[in-house]
Amino acid sequence: MKAQMLGNLFRYSIPRHHVRHNPSLLLFSHLRCVDRHPRSWDTSHNVTRMNVVESIVYPTERVGMARAHHPSRSSGIPAAIRERGRQRRDIVVSSAFDFAFQPIVDIRTGVPYAYEALIRGPRGESAGNVLAGVALPLRYHFDQAIRERAFNAAMSLGLSTRLSINCLPNALLRHDRNIQRTVEAAEASGMSMRDVIFEIVEDEHIDDQKALAHVFRAHRDLGFKTALDDFGAGYASLSLLADLHPDIVKVDIALVKGVDIDTTRQKIVRGALAICRDLGIEIIAEGVETTGERDFFASEGVTLMQGFLFARPAMRALPLPLL
Fold it and tell me: Largest CB tally within 10 Å, which of 67, 141, 200, 225?
């Protein structure tokens, strides 16, 4: 199996002689291999992913999975490669990302209902740019680290209302200790679980919606609120609504933009609002940028809104909304 994976490693990425003479390519080439062979690591044996990297790209050293528990036996692996592996793992706890916060406003009072934590690079780079720098095999670990660090970041700014955090849906399904770690992180930061909203983003296909529904219920049983983000723009929104029954639905900006002058959008939005109300789901209009959009949703009874009209995201700050 290892020999086959090694062959695939070089077949799909970089010529063998290039890698042999350029150790800096080893990590990159293996990550390509892991992408194509997602089961190339055995989590039941608690083997770290980068230890398995070592066992695959150095077969002649016979650094097997059983020996990966003993770093001292990996002396045949250059220190530079081991350090590179540690750096890849450490990205999930490093200072390579930061947060901007944007208020979700209750327009009846002008008071923030919650603040959404938006991942940014250390110099304000977008979430897309940050995630693009994270290898796919580490994406779900990174997602967990974002949630854990968001609690501390918000509390350090004196947050006194709810915190909304984006989650990759499949990340919630990948780790048995996911909920436990989240609870521990919330408690350690001093944040009440009842003040935490998990927003499931619809920018990836969900592996198992039924299993995700069980995870949603487990979060709600602990006091967390759940939200379906980008409603109307992603994968199977109505199917997710039926299976997950979230506490909150955020109407996507694609439906919000120009809704006050677009009768087609108005009919679609009114239908979505009616469904959510029948199901007892709270509604947030996101991406509100004009007074016309605000007034349309207000006339439809929506009181929770988010968008540039009220406040732009602010790095390491909790901006006050303008009405």
Answer: 200
* Separation of CA 94 from chain center: 16
The answer to whether 245 touches 279, Cβ cutoff 8 Å, is yes
- Give me the half-sphere count of Cα atoms (radius 13 Å) on the Cβ side of residue 53: 25
Q: Answer whether 171's CB lies under 8 Å from 138's CB.
A: no
Mean pLDDT is lowest, of 57-71, 88-102, 174-188, 249-263, for: 57-71
> What are the start-end ranges of the H helices in the chain?
2-12, 16-20, 24-36, 49-57, 79-90, 127-132, 139-156, 171-174, 178-189, 209-221, 237-244, 253-256, 263-278, 291-299
Measure CA of the first residue to CA of the last residue in the chain; give whole Å: 62
Residue whose C-alpha is closest to residue 285's, from 308, 268, 305, 271: 305
Per the CB < 8 A criterion, the answer to whether 139 and 168 are in contact is: yes
Identify the H or E element spanning 66.
none
CB-based contact 139:131 (threshold 8 Å):
yes
What radius of gyration, in Å, describes the C-alpha atoms of the chain?
Answer: 23
pLDDT of residue 129 exceeding 60, the answer is yes
CA dihedral 154, 249, 103, 107 (to 10 degrees): -140
